[in-house]
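hiii so my PI (J.) wants the whole complex modelled not just the main chain, which honestly fair. so below is everything: two entries, each one labled with what it is. i double checked the lines twice but i was tired so who knows lol
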Amino acid sequence: MTDPNVVLVRHGETPWNRDRRVQGWAPIGLTDRGREQAHQAGRFIAETYDIDRVLASDIQRTRDTTTIVREYVSAPVSFEAAWRERGFGVLQGLYYEALFDRFPEYSVLVNGQDAAARRPENGESLLETRDRVLDGWRTLTDGVAPGETILVITHGGPLYFVLAHLRGLTLADAIATLEQDNCGVTEVRVGQRGFEVVRENDTSWARGQSSVG
Amino acid sequence: MATAVLLRHGVTDWNEERRIQGWGPVPLNDRGRSQARQAGEYLAETYAVDRIVASDIQRTVETAETVADSVDAPVETTRAWRERGFGIYQGLLYDDVYARHPEHDATSGIVALDATPETGESMLDMQQRVIAGWEQLLNDVGPNDTVVVVTHGGPIYVTLGHVAGQDVVSAIADGHQGNCAVNVLSHDPETGTTEIVRENYTEYRD
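here's the output for the full assembly
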């Protein structure tokens, strides 16, 4: 029996990704380009893996991505709040640039641990979000069956938290060095002796595809 | 007679884009700052203002501080006069949200009043919070005081509706307030009666 795998994918592009607005839990749909990304990623995942079940964040952009991916991947889905992006509370909708310019107290690159622990009103701190996501990750990897392949459809933040956890990176280093593109595919093998990241932010599904955007 | 002047904040980029602001810290734009300056000058010429009470959200705090440059009175901030908290809908366009979720449009009927967006408030939550703040204000106000309240569209609609004995749905559906619009209410502490003297007044500015 082969080792179980977890395949993680970020949602497709949204208008707020394009505008660089802070989305958090906002119910924003995908752009035409985002839908095309989800179709291409869905085909790639269906060709590359034998997916047994799908877990997805219950926010609109991951729900919409999941609907498209499941046109290619026939596996049951459950939507879970554990895989949501950070809740940005009252900062939702601002431009990222304006947010970190006007409120540097939220930038871990500028203010380190203080910024990681700071919670926007009605939102979550980075540390709270990380704990929520890693609880979801542990529940998932503790419950995975031998030979099983699970697809997780989530957001940039949770992908950073999982990768930082697996590699022992600080949040600041993870945010400064990692990249997650829309519908980028990451694969983690759950081995007897630990986890191995065997694919990271793979967007090779887009190769030679230039029909959109 | 005590006087309460309810002033809506100056215009922001999100007002111009018709984006739901809720509690978002969106600053005034250049036009909004100029509106706030003119409102301050008008209020300073027209009233002997004793106190300024402002919602503690960025656009009302900025407006109140600008008004206080002309009106020599201290500014106190409070949550009571905040706009409705729109939770996860903050930042979306009003037209998109109401098209997809008519239950959040209070003008669509009474049922919408208690629809609560995740991490936000229902219309009724907002109305109860604001009216509690209004009653507190009337309770605290000296018999001849003039208090300027710098707040948002929603709280002004529900306060005027409350004083006029209008139901909440019509107050919100029929309400209109320009940016930095002035509303004047006169309160007789002896009899406890309140009268609306002026509504949505913006003609003071050039």
